[in-house]
Design a protein that fits this description.
CATH architecture of the largest domain: 3-Layer(aba) Sandwich
Number of strands: 20
Strand content: 15-25%
CATH superfamily of the largest domain: NAD(P)-binding Rossmann-like Domain
Helix content: 25-40%
Radius of gyration: 23 Å
Number of helices: 17
Shape: globular
């Protein structure tokens, strides 16, 4: 039984610039933090032997002592490189493919682990290689654009006369995806952060609360876009203390940015403000952007109301508020929350199973954010102008919980699951450090603005999203 993962990213760089980095296997650790060291005996050629060590201290030490050399199995200069690492009863294949298109290069990474222990070795050896693929690509872009004359020229041409896009909350899942996508597309990107950390992105220090050097630096930009994604994960017990913390980590950074923008010499060109469909509260009724959110819904809905209210007064020429559904991607936190019990046979519906689940695939969210920034949706696609105001960033086909859990069971390969009554779910939520309302509230948000604008989803149906996550 095999384990496999496929990931892709488009770069505004020629294939040769990327190949120069990929083909030097000693540089693998420079762009993939999961690798501590890598080397090749002699020249790069089919049949050549080499070795690498994972950066995980325990796995790396075991690998150094027990793993045989890998073998280069395929070399097509400027196009494809593959290697195979033997493992007990099978092996791990890693392949990178470069395809020049749309004025740049599409990189596709395939990692396959086969053999009777394929699934087990996939989790311990394969998964670390593919984790954080977006950040890996951002590092690879930096290296390729700096090291190659053609890459430097392409990166300079792409970034010229374009605004700086600064992201608050840029170190989170969505922030990293968007920042990496923009950087690899040649745009100038910076991340607001409370402390410097190893990162492929330019970092600007702020405290998320008060005026400082960060405001002066952003105010001095000739052209500026802002993407505000700041805020702790909503997935934590719904205590009053946690609700206050969730509110604070959203409202304070938003107010700081809004207040700063009011003092800048030029307005922000495009402002993308994150929000959540939780503002609609608990209801089975369909709700699009024309539906007024309830003014008195408690809990998470009250947090989101305060979040959106803090955005009032932002000095921006164009602005979009993205009321985002639950993000689905391969390493999304919700998948871990749901797949772990499902693998143990507890993958039945939650509560009544009739509550609605509003979701969106991460790839579509990135395309919506790019549209809000006035950019092409992706390489090879055109632009799509969104109106100012609220946009529901959700799939056009929300599903009920019973359907969601059926897909979860199929995803993990366990055909049956024990349901979890609402009372039981609420009783164990504290121990699991989660908020049961995220699973039990019914939110049926519809993307009316996106539909009117002609936005075409890559993953409009939940089945298609799960197929992609299983690849």
């Amino acid at each position: 039984m095999s384990w496999h993962r496929t990931s892709s990213q488009w770069f505004r760089l020629p294939a040769g610039a990327l190949w120069d980095v990929l083909a030097d296997l000693s540089r693998w650790p420079e762009w993939n933090p999961a690798i501590a060291t890598a080397s090749l005996d002699g020249e790069l050629a089919e049949g050549a032997a080499g070795r690498y060590a994972p950066s995980n201290r325990i796995v790396g030490a075991l690998h150094r002592r027990t793993a045989p050399d890998f073998t280069v199995t395929r070399v097509e200069p400027g196009r494809r490189l593959a290697l195979r690492q033997p493992q007990p009863g099978g092996g791990q294949d890693v392949m990178w493919t470069l395809d020049e298109r749309d004025g740049g290069t599409q990189l596709t990474q395939h990692v396959v682990v086969d053999g009777p222990l394929g699934q087990q070795f996939g989790l311990t050896a394969g998964e670390p290689l593919v984790r954080g693929f977006a950040s890996q690509c951002a590092r690879l872009y930096r290296l390729a654009s700096q090291d190659s004359a053609a890459g430097t020229e392409a990166a300079h041409d792409a970034a010229s006369d374009r605004p700086l896009t600064v992201l608050a909350g840029g170190s989170g899942t969505l922030g990293t995806l968007l920042a990496a996508d923009l950087l690899c597309s040649g745009y100038d990107v910076a991340v607001l952060t409370r402390s410097f950390t190893p990162s492929p992105f330019r970092q600007i220090i702020w405290d998320g609360r008060s005026h400082g050097d960060w405001s002066e630096e952003l105010g001095a930009q000739e052209r500026l876009n802002v993407v505000n994604l700041a805020g702790l994960s909503l997935d934590r017990p719904g205590t009053e203390e946690n609700l206050a913390l969730l509110r604070e980590t959203r409202v304070e950074p938003t107010r700081a940015l809004v207040t700063a923008s009011q003092g800048w010499a030029r307005p922000v060109e495009r402002w993308v403000q994150q929000s959540a469909v939780g503002i609609y509260g608990d209801s089975p009724e369909p709700m699009d952007e024309s539906t007024p959110p309830p003014a008195d819904a408690p809990g998470l809905a009250s947090v989101v109301r305060s979040w959106e209210a803090a955005f009032d007064g932002a000095a921006a020429t164009r602005s979009v508020v993205l009321r985002t559904g639950v993000i689905l991607k391969r390493d999304a936190a919700i998948l871990s929350r749901l797949t772990t019990p499902a693998r143990l046979g507890a993958g039945g519906h939650l509560g009544t199973g009739a509550q609605w689940f509003s979701w969106i695939h991460a790839a579509d969210w990135v395309r919506i954010a790019r549209a809000a920034l006035g950019l092409p949706l992706s390489a090879g696609e055109g632009t799509l102008e969104l109106p100012d105001g609220v946009v529901n960033a959700t799939s056009p086909q929300p599903v009920q919980n019973r359907e969601l859990m059926a897909h979860i069971r199929e995803f993990v390969g366990v055909p049956v699951g024990i349901p979890a009554p609402a009372g039981l779910l609420r009783a164990v939520a504290g121990a699991l450090r989660t908020n049961p309302d995220l699973a039990l509230d019914s939110i049926r948000a519809l993307p009316g603005v996106l539909k009117a604008a002609g936005f075409e989803f890559l993953y409009p149906q939940l089945a298609a999203a799960f197929r992609e996550m299983a690849e």
